[in-house]
Amino acid sequence: MSGAFLTIGSVEDFRYLLPRILEVSAFEPENANNPEIVLGKLSLAGWQSWPAGETRAIRTFIDAWFDHALGDDLLEAEQGWVGWDAEAVLCGASRAGLPLASWLARLCEPDAALVLADMRQRLPDDPFGFWETAPEGYRELQTILTKGRA
Question: How much is the pTM?
Answer without folding.
Answer: 0.91
